[in-house]
Amino acid sequence: MSNTELFLHTDKQTSNLAKIYKKAISEAIELYIVSAYLTEWDSDFSFNTKLYPSKFKFIFGKDFGISKKIAINKVYETLPKQFRKNFLVAENIQGFHPKAMFWKTKENQYFSLIGSSNLTNAAFNSNYEANILNPISEKQFIDVIKWITDIEKNSTPITAEWIENYIESISIKVKQPFNYFKMLANLTINENLLTHRRKQLENYQKNKDKLKIYIQQCSDGKIDNEIFYGKLKSILENGITFQPRFGWVRKGRYDNFKRLCQSLINIYNAPDNKKDKVVSKEINKLQKKNIATRKALLSELLSLEYPDKYPLWNSPVIKFIRELSIKIPSKSDDGEKFILISNELRKIINDMDNKFNLAELDVLIQHKYR
């Protein structure tokens, strides 16, 4: 492999990309793999016995929960134990999109394989992909190692516990191809609405410490439902609530706020890498207890606290999701549904030229679909 090679792939024409991966992994004495997503791994890939753990890094991304637990576990189980500490996830990097492999052979040759292909079955078998294999210089290889080291600082080693707690996105059915950009074009970018929503988020920041005290007191049983309801309503009416008609009030005024507050405390205390899992778990608990406020109110409080992660969960958002031709699996419980909706809206935010958070996107959705 002394010359540049180009690998072009279509849904009807295969390439030798998988063979190149297999050959590179088997001959590398230094190996660095980065992939935005990890959904497929061939257990037949065999690492060179001359490859040392200190000369190996495998880093993948977890944006939107696309990486698959089964593939992550395959890599973890395939790797010798001394290599596992260098199998990492780009936990603290938003927008981790590289698709590349770099390696050194025993003949002191250096190579890069860079292109559009993630480590997915579709990338090897059905997608339209373009990748290029190049020999590189020793200096370039050293630059790669420095770059990998920087990524490593913002990554987390994979453990059996991490795999167990990881939440991947639910497989969804799309009736027909859709274009996020076309859908977003139908949302009027109203600067007055966006300014108002940003002011609501600012007001929340000014009042959230007081609100969280009341939530803790209600969770501990120190104040009852009626007192908590009054305090919550007075705070949200202070230029904060996303739902001026308080749609949850009619159904949830006499709800079990103590149980709701206990769920909120568990979510607030959850580490970022387990937040989605805890949110899903707590919503399911509230569903089993038939707590009516588990959707509109809980999602509003989550969106206020985590505007980049969680949307409002009400009928306008559901209508918007349906117009994307996304069918939410009917057998899913409420927790899974909410995380699915959150992931789909996170993807849209990632695709947008105007960078909004989910709370800002929400005000445009509410305006159009309410």
How do the helices and strands line up, and which of them pair or pack?
Blueprint: E1 5-9, H1 17-27, E2 30-35, E3 56-60, H2 69-78, E4 87-89, E5 99-104, E6 110-115, H3 121-125, E7 129-136, H4 138-153, E8 156-157, H5 160-165, E9 173-174, H6 180-185, H7 191-219, H8 225-236, H9 247-252, H10 257-269, H11 275-288, H12 296-305, H13 315-323, E10 326-327, H14 334-351, H15 358-369
Parallel strand pairs: 2-3, 3-4
Antiparallel strand pairs: 1-7, 2-5, 4-8, 5-6, 6-7, 9-10
Helix pairs in contact: 7-8, 7-10, 7-15, 10-11, 11-14, 13-15
Any key phrases for this structure?
370 residues, alpha+beta, eight-stranded mixed sheet, two-stranded antiparallel ribbon, 15 helices, 10 strands, 48% helix, 12% strand
The termini sit apart by 60 Å
What's the pLDDT, averaged over the residues?
84
Helical segment count: 15
Strand order of the largest sheet: 1-7-6-5-2-3-4-8
Give start-end ranges of low-pLDDT stretches. 172-178
Rounded to the nearest angstrom, the radius of gyration is 24 Å
Structural class category: alpha+beta
